[in-house]
Each structure stands twice: as structure tokens, then as C-alpha cells.
What does this fold into?
Amino acid sequence: MARGIEIREAHFPGRAPIDTYGNGGFRFADMSHRGSILCLPSGIHGWKMDATMPLSIENLQRVLDEASEIEFLLLGTGVDMRPIPADLKAALKAAGISSDSMSTGAAVRTFNIMLMESRAVAAALIAV
It folds into this structure.
């Protein structure tokens, strides 16, 4: 018997460079995703985040869950750079993760370079 459309959580199970960004989403690995993404060791995940929402421990819990495989987190905060709140910065540091915030475009470019260098990098990218 045929089943209806199955909606799954957005997830690409691998590490891939970001080919393009803009128009509210990202292209990577011959795929596209509308909305924000987390690029983690476990793959690229859809992220329910936009530039109006706070950067918080709760919003980045998935990053902290994979901390043992991440040395550096790039936070792409949209069109404009936003500082990382002190409590989030401290939680990342306690987990052994260095972090830096920048515009999403700068974060995409830096992520791609660090990924090519086989660095233990992750990125939290807010769609622009």
C-alpha cells in the first residue's frame, strides 16, 4: 500500500563544503536547504534559527552534544555580525570549543577553507 509524503528532519549525513548561500538558504553536496543550518561532524542539519532569535546555549545544544569532535565553531550570524553572549562563549570554552562570530558569508568562506584543511571545524549558519 502506498504511503503519503514522509516529512523528515533535514539532515545530510556527511561533511561537505557550502557551494552557495543566499535567498534564504544554502546549497551543498548537490542539494539545497531553505533556512539555517548546522554543519557538524555528524553531518549538515536543518536549524530552526533566524537573525531575530537569540544566540543561546539552548539554540546550540546540538553543537555542545558533539563537542568531543569539534575544536572550532564558526557562528554565521546573518548579514550583520553579532557578538556571542558571555554565557554561551563560556559553555563552548568549557566544552573545549573555540568560537568566533562573523557574518554568514564570512563564516561560509572560512568554514570551507578549514574543512579543506581537515580541521575539526563546525559552523552554525543563519540563512540570509
Remarks:
- The chain has a mean pLDDT of 93.
- The helical segments are 61-65, 86-94, 104-116.
